[in-house]
Amino acid sequence: MDLVEAILSRKSIRAFKPDPVPRKVLEEILETAIRAPSSANTQPWEFFIVGGEKLQELKEALTNMALGAPRPDVPFVTQFPEPYGARRRNLGRKVLEMQGIDRKDKEKRRRWYVQMTKFFDAPHAILISIDRSFYHMNDFLNVWGVFSCGLVAMNVALLATSHGLGTCLEVAPVAYPDVIRQILEIPDSKLMVLAIAIGYPDWDNPVNQFRSEREPVNRITQWYGFK
Ligand SMILES: Cc1cc2nc3c(=O)[nH]c(=O)nc-3n(C[C@H](O)[C@H](O)[C@H](O)COP(=O)(O)O)c2cc1C
After folding, report:
1. Would the pTM count as exceeding 0.90?
2. Is 90 near ligand 1, meaning CB less than 6 Å away?
3. Contact, 195 vs 170, CB < 8 A?
4. Residue 12 CB less than 6 A away from ligand 1
């Protein structure tokens, strides 16, 4: 698959087939993904890949936590000034609509949130972590380390697409990093930045028919020195 095709066909997948992905495929994806650039080649990312019974255990623990107060390692955004608020509302409305969930149906929305927290029942979850020593600096948070983790995450998503896999980059599960660390026996020094739900897409599920919108380039770009 060529790069443009991978970029254009990648989208967030929010329903998966249960079939596991061979470890070799996941290894191949990671081997290539780590060619991502990072600030000063610090390569701040570390991966925790979960499947099988361990994932089941993690999903149960996260289900019990879901909707409890989030305690993420990397703070969540809680304010969405315009135009970001409108884009977010539009996304939320459409993702619910695709599944026939009425915005006023609190129970169905709750269940959807739980689904999100447990990696949309994907057969695998990839957790991307950064060491506390490279995030909590003396007087600031190292956003560039997290930014670099984002670049490797993008590579994972594109490479997964080229293998016929679907992904959803997610912060919802990392709202409860203590639970993740406890179940996977990860030391407190490893901060949870992002989760990636990964597996074979369930194309029969209407949620996967959804294609998110983009602002056109001409509205967000200024050109200088061009005729
Ligand atoms: C940092 C980050 C966090 C995200 N967290 C979530 C999440 O918790 N739940 C979710 O359903 N999607 C999540 N997404 C997916 C975005 O909603 C999605 O990328 C966006 O709507 C654009 O749609 P597309 O990926 O289908 O192109 C996240 C994406 C990023 C980059």
Report:
1. yes
2. no
3. yes
4. yes
